[in-house]
Every structure is written in structure tokens, then in C-alpha cells.
Amino acid sequence: MQSEATTASYDAEVIVVGAGPVGLTTGCALRHHGVDCLILEERTEVRAYSRANNLWARPQELLASVGLRDAIAERAYPVRLVNFFMNGTPTTPIRIDDVTSPHPQVLYSGQDVIETTLIEIYEGRGGRMQRGGKVVSVAQDGDGVTVTVRRSDDGPEERLRCRYLVAADGAKSTVRPLLDLDFEPERFEGRMNRQVDAKLSWRRSLEPDQLWFFYYERGFCGVMPVWGGYHRLFFLADDAGVPDRDPTLDEIQAVAREVTGDETLTLSDPQWLTHSRFQYGVSPGYARGRVFLAGDAGHLSLPIGGQGMNAGLHDAVEIAWRLAAVLRGQAASVVLESYDAERGGEHARLSAQQAKGFRRTVYRGPITDMALGLAAKVVPGIGALLQGTDDLQQLSVSYPKSPLNEDHLSGVTHLLQRGPGAGERAPEAEVTVDGRTTSLFPFIYNPDSVTTGWTLLCFDGRSTEAGASLRAAVEAVAPWGWVRPRLVLAGPVSEAGGVPVLSDLDGKAHGAYGLEGQSALVLVRPDGHIAYRGAADRPERLTAYCRRTFMT
């Protein structure tokens, strides 16, 4: 991908600031796409303890698309069930693995373990990293970005040059204020979190396949596995009478026994005892010119539903494929510009959702507690309600206002069979290929080893007359070699010059996309989100979309 001019003029095509999970995932994804990448990290070593530690289904799908998910899963516990208690009363447990995804079980590991795994992959892919330097200035011009790094407070400065810069340097980002993208966090007063990672003994199961959450008077407690046989216990509660310092193990154990109702609960061998208070906010933008924010560099997240790191992993995969497509000369400017609109908007939505869930969780009074205690006995899934979302797995993340969207199947005539529209995640569905049961995902994500490949799903709608239209659609995208057609046929077999045929006689894929009885075209982006939907007999609309989205 690099020319001699590029090598001479730039220290890297993309520089990533920050070697936490989000920065490392960005680097790994860029290397997956063949992009020359340099990661800058102020820390000299990986943190010896864990902060974020869970991976939901949708981020796992995205990690799988860039070859990262399985290595992380090898050092993680798959969790299937979440147990909720309201003032000692159990509510309906939530089966979090009951979702249509190749990776339905949430993975619990540790941030330190995840970082170590990603570093091994990044270096194995030829990625470069420099530790021990702090970014002190960023200057942009029409051709690239100049980054100034200082090795110590009064140490020497080094200037590095790149085409694009991704800031993934966390909530205390040094890059964000340099871009005039800083924000004033909102604070939750009167509440504190106390937390420990330790060995746990209690009367409940120690198998690391489920979580426990306890709502108690003016507080909220979680018990979850951490890699290596440890458990994390946290307590978000009223801070009245609580010392403003890290707790002792005995203090945490006493609270844990009371909250969980288990007088035998014992904690030992603590790895990490900490306390914190809560604030949240979102940057007014996720991009400035050639510089992009990712993860907590642009969003100060709340610990509700374990969404923060997972949202950052979305950012990492999303910016990587866009930068790769631009650097390859495949993508028009709208593709890179859409990152800010999509991810900035999603972080704003998530922040509001988290704040709502946080207030429900830790600002409950006695009247609310009484009502919830009664509701817990009759309302299934009340725990998810209190958490602020019924989609902990992030499968409903969508971009309804993305500039990449174009949808010709969203009118009144399509209300009765509404499938996922432009901006939504393309759903998984069972299909058959050469008599073998498989699914759509292997044909959607990076098809035919084209890492920035887009997939055109051509649905025949069970029509005997759709063949000619589908062939015309395949010809319409021929000028753009990274757009890979697939025929999804519920009706007669139709040939289209070697295009893969996915048999759907049982209509499972057509049903998942709301296209039973409709011959239609669905263009799916490299991240698995739908970009375009249209009738199969109007291929000129698809051609117009490709002309405005891709370079020719």
C-alpha cells in the first residue's frame, strides 16, 4: 500500500495515540487492512490490574471481522445468565445469550489480559509502538498531521508525521483539548463506587458463567468474574458516612455479606481495591479534519451495563475500515466524514441512556424501592429496565441519520414487511450453500478476503422472473471490485457469472430482512451495517449510490 513517497514523507500512514483496548484494536484493525500504523503510548507498561472487562455480542462480531475475537475469547469466560435481586427479592433472570448472533455469550476477561492479547496480535501483524512519550501538540495541513511527542516534562521533543491521527488516549485525553473538542462533565453528587477484584467464596455458584446484580436501599452491587479465577465486586451507593478513600478488604466484605444476604461470603487475595465518583459527558464532535477520536477520548462513560469499552471497540473497527478504504483510493470523502456523524451521534445517545439508567439505579428513594419491589415479582426483565436498556448486547446500535444511508424500501408500502433499514445492522440468517447449512455472516464480513469489501445481497423474493434484474444489479457494481454480489434465492436457481448462490428455500434470510415476496438489493458495508436498500428492478439507483460513495 505504501509508495516510496509515502515512506519518505510520513513516519506512518496512521498514528494512534493510546495503547488501551481501543487504541490497540484500532492498530490491529488497521494492520488487518494492510495500513502502516504506529501506536504512541505514554505508559511504559501494561496496567497490572483490570478496569473494563466484558465484551458484548455486537462488539464480538466486529472484532471477529478483523480477526481479533477468537484470541480474546481464549482468555475469557463466556457468560450466559444475569441474576437480579431487588431488596433481597429475586427478579426474572435474563438469558443474555438468547440473541441471534454467532457470539451470543458475553465474554468476561480483564483489561490487562485483553491488552496483552492485542499487543501480541498487533506486533505479530507488523505493527509498531513507542512507549514513554506524551503528545503535546497536533498540527494539521492539507496533506497530513504533525504530532509532537515529549519524553518527559523537560525532555526532548520528537515530531512525527502521518496522514491521519486517531486519538484513543482515554477520558483524560491530551489530544481532545488540542482539537477544541473538550467538554465539561456533568457530575452525580452524593454517590460513590467502591470496588475490589479478589478471590471469592460464597454459597452461590463460583462457575464464571453468570453475573449477579443486587439493588439494595440507596445502592447497587455487582458480582462478576474476572480472568484468572477472581471476581469483581462493586458497590454504587450513597456516600453518606463512607470514608472518601479506597476501602479495606474487611470493609468491602462486610458490605458484601449484608447486600448479598450471604453471611459466609469471604474475600481474599485482593488484586485491586479502589473508589471513585461519577461524571459523564460527550465531546461535541468525534473528528476534526484528519484527526479522529475513539472510545473514552470522546466519551466519559458511566459504569452502567458495561457499555463503555464496548462502544470504543465499535469506534476502533469503524474508523479503521474507513481509513483503509480512503488510503486505498476506494472511498469518496463521504465515507470518512460519516464516522463523526455516526459514532459521535451514537455516543451522545449512549451517554443519555447511561445517565438515565444510573439515576434509576442509585437515586432511588423508599417509595420507588417499594414500587420496584412489588414490580419485581410480576414484571419480567425488570433488571434490564433499571439498567436503562433492553439491549445490553448492543445489537440494536444503528445509524439512522448516516450520510451513507439510502433507502428506497422505507415507504408506506413496506410497513407490513419492515426489515432492517439503512443504517441498521444486517441480521444473521441461515442459508444453504452446496447442500451445506451455513449463514450470511461469512459472506458479509470481508468477503473473499477483501478486507474493506462491501457485500451486495441480491434477494429474488421467490420470484420466477427476478433473474434478469439480479444479473443487471451484478453488472451495475462491476466497476467497483470491492463490492461483492451474492444471490440469495428462495425461488428458482439463477446464474450470474460465478456469483455465489445462497439458497433460501425456507425463506429464513428473506424473512430476517423483511423481503419475502420482494426482489430487492441490500448493500452491506464492511462493518455489517446496511448502507442501501432498493428494488431489484432499479439497478440505476444502486449505480448512482456507488458513484457518490466510491472512487472510480
Automatic annotation (TrEMBL):
Keywords: FAD, Flavoprotein, Monooxygenase, Oxidoreductase
Family matches, as InterPro entries: FAD-bd, FAD/NAD-bd_sf, RIFMO-like, Thioredoxin-like_sf
Cofactors, names only: FAD
GO molecular function: FAD binding; oxidoreductase activity, acting on paired donors, with incorporation or reduction of molecular oxygen, NAD(P)H as one donor, and incorporation of one atom of oxygen
Ranges for domain FAD-binding: 12-343
Family: Belongs to the PheA/TfdB FAD monooxygenase family.
Protein name: Monooxygenase FAD-binding protein
Protein species of origin: Methylobacterium oryzae CBMB20
Lineage, highest ranks first: Bacteria, Pseudomonadati, Pseudomonadota, Alphaproteobacteria, Hyphomicrobiales
